[in-house]
Specification:
Two copies of one chain form a homodimer. Chain A is α/β, with parallel strands linked by helices and about 450 residues long. In chain A, about 40% of the residues lie in helices and about 25% in strands. The interface between A and B is medium-sized, with 25 and 25 residues.
Chain lengths: ~450, ~450
């Protein structure tokens, strides 16, 4: 009778006692972060004292030193650098675009424009008539008209996607591959509608990639208002435009992932990773993308130390060196994990802005997801729930090494992210202190639960 | 067998068909609002062309005319005004506060300060030593020290409340009653820590009420940074301060609720009300409080007309005249509902800012709540769920007339609201277009469901 008695009568109470204990521990962590959190002050330093930090820039070097110094001050068990090589793209000058003729009449309308990341110099002014297309379908239909033109893609977001990341994915292909797809048919330059939700005129940069089979033509993103106006004009008549860009590559740069570790007391060989990326584009302060993820990662460590939390598993706090234009930080981290035969059980990335957290995404099997979702009632008071689908560019390479590592991510509210993502408006002033800290609270709570109960149902 | 067959086999399919039909209708409404919504442009007009609009001001008169004109342009079945009398408080001048001595040594530190709404003129400079207290408990303990002093209440928000409205409720009592509770013991003036979550120094005004049994001493809110500095100084030594305010009342003003109506096709006598309040404090543009609620209300009407939606019940779209300093708009609406023996089934208020919507709150019985909560899967794709507890200052008076009227409200994310609530920072620039429109989407979806299926389980 003893075992049955235990199972029927004691287990529910024990389970409830465990839930209560977790609830109290999470509340302590939340109170610590919301009351004494330093993430906002650290973000001010990173954005205002260091600023934009594209891999290869002096700012990115400074950011790694800053990160190491601040992590050390939090007194984890160790802090170290992981050197890695990264691309070293230079914008090279002030990108230029203008409308210089409409239906044969000269005009002079400067357009707000930014060269896309990785795009190369135009080698002087490129001037041509504009072929404006709604999408690739239209490009293919009109491929005979492309030769000698500047192609404009109307890569505007679909506003009916409630999750803006879905609209970004749909439009993002024009930024990534639009230049080469137009160059294939003889285009001399490409302009896109910025990948933006903002009702303003700030252009948004971001990574693109040339297909080496075709000429590497210059590619710029236009400010949303200018893009809409250009598209309207080009649908009614012949628009002649100029583009000038200055991009080039220096030899690969030496950057560093910065890693802090709390050693596990029960399973020191099992690793949980939290991280964000330290680099940003050059045109802003990288406050939401991804200064927020960096300081939230640091905040979780700070709070755990402040509360003298001794994890069962080893927890790594990683400031990845290079995500934006190469993904070399995450690749290096995974490469070393494999080399050192490390056992990773879960990795969580915060790289979707410092906005109010809405969910913790977990990319895993249905059974394991159901296990994690039992924690939702513990997270709900802090605004999140566990949902299917997680991961990110920095932690993703770990799955190439071991596909059983659980990929997770903090999902903040997405409505404002693409107002400022990769635009000059991604600055400290557009980050809200409470929203930022609340993100750290939810990461800390989820990681606490993973540490206490593991990842296996 | 027929009825049983019907119940067992057909009902689930019919129910599913109904859910699908609702889902399609809601998606249509959402697409219309996210694509063609004019709420953001209307808000720009209301805030930039009209501006702050305290009841009794010319701006508030203009706002009602603007509201009527724009509602009429949307071609509902009727638009009319409901005249009502409102208080007419005047700030009267530029409020002033300063530290003029520390431990007997003269100093001159101007403090950011705003008189609380309804507080009266100080009749010249009031100068006195400061008695700084953490709360009313400390005031009561130290009541013998109060006479002749300026009392400072450290009514700072508790940052550990995740829902900021809870922190606001807790701290709000110092704004509402602090002056008279100090005057009772002979205080000559009162200063409070602004009811603010912002890491800045903008003071926040808001309503207070004198207890007629005690002298009506001047009361100001200090900017958060100044308040923290003053409190720190007052705990260590003797701080001497000055206050000057200029408040007074003019005779009650003539304002108007503006009401638009879509007449019900099946139950025209049963009324569903949606609304926000047109008035705001004088020191800002009232963009979130409550321009957002106003333009969301108008947007729901616009979208329903654009889609030629013909409601079963009569739907009223109400721009309430006066909430901030008197609540006379909602009182008049309920008074007329009673007078005209109207049958109201549900009222929904949007008065918590134009931020990303998180839930639809419903204040009702558990059985009725469970009925509404079955709609959560239909709302979830747009970011909300149905939760317990709803209502608001403008619709609240309806329950005095008929307690069965379901009170509901849109609950947006609350993290940023008290950064700018009643402060000069509540301006158009701090409203996000997508967040604002998404609020209207969720109101429209919920009201559609109420209209289609009623409020009875």
């Amino acid at each position: 009778m003893r075992p049955l008695f235990f199972l029927v009568f004691c287990l529910p109470f024990m389970a409830q006692a465990q839930v209560n204990q977790d609830s109290v521990a999470i509340k302590k962590m939340a109170d610590e972060i919301m009351t004494n959190g330093t993430a906002y002050d650290l973000l001010r330093e990173l954005t205002k004292k260091i600023g934009g930090r594209l891999a290869g820039s002096p700012q990115q070097q400074n950011a790694a030193i800053w990160g190491k110094r601040n992590l050390e001050a939090m007194k984890p068990d160790k802090v170290y650098m992981q050197p890695c090589k990264t691309p070293n793209w230079q914008r090279g000058g002030k990108d230029f675009a203008a409308i210089v003729g409409i239906n044969g009449k000269p005009t002079n309308q400067k357009l707000e424009a930014l060269a896309l990341g990785n795009s190369l110099s135009s080698n002087g002014l490129v001037e041509a008539d504009v072929l404006a297309v709604a999408n690739f379908d239209e490009l293919e239909k009109r491929k005979d008209e492309v030769k000698g033109k500047i192609v404009y893609y109307n890569s505007e977001f679909d506003p009916t996607f409630i999750q803006t990341f879905k609209a970004y994915s749909a439009a993002g292909t024009y930024r990534g591959t639009g230049a080469s797809r137009a160059a294939k048919y003889g285009a001399v330059g490409v302009m896109i509608h910025s990948l933006s939700t903002a009702p303003d005129n700030a252009p948004h940069t971001g990574g693109m990639k040339y297909d080496s089979a075709y000429p590497k033509i210059p590619a710029v993103a236009l400010g949303p208002n200018d893009a809409k106006a250009l598209y309207a004009k080009a649908k009614k008549g012949t628009v002649r435009a100029q583009i000038q860009t200055y991009g080039f590559f220096l030899p690969d740069a030496d950057e560093n992932n910065v890693v802090a570790e709390l050693k596990g007391t029960e399973h020191p060989e099992e690793i949980i990773t939290i991280g964000g990326h330290l680099d940003s584009w050059d045109v802003n302060e990288g406050a939401h993308d991804d200064g927020a993820g960096i300081v939230q990662t640091m905040e979780v460590l700070r709070a755990m130390k402040a509360l003298n939390y001794q994890p069962k598993h080893t927890i790594r706090f990683v400031l990845f060196a290079n995500e934006e234009n190469g993904g070399k930080g995450g690749a290096k981290y995974a490469e070393l994990a494999k080399l050192n035969k490390e056992k990773h059980i879960l990795a969580l990335e915060s790289d979707a802005g410092g906005f109010t957290p809405r969910s913790i995404g977990v990319g895993t099997t249905p059974a394991q997801l159901a296990y994690f979702q039992k924690w939702t009632p513990l997270l709900k008071p802090y605004g999140t729930e566990v949902v299917a689908g997680g991961g990110g560019a920095d932690i993703g390479p770990l799955t190439g090494y071991d596909k059983n590592i659980v990929m997770s991510s903090l999902t903040p509210d997405s409505q404002r992210y693409f107002d400022l993502h990769h635009a000059k408006t991604d600055v400290f002033e557009n980050v809200n202190k409470r929203e930022l800290l609340l993100g750290a609270v939810n990461i800390a709570a989820f990681i606490y639960l993973v540490d206490q109960h593991g990842v296996n149902p």
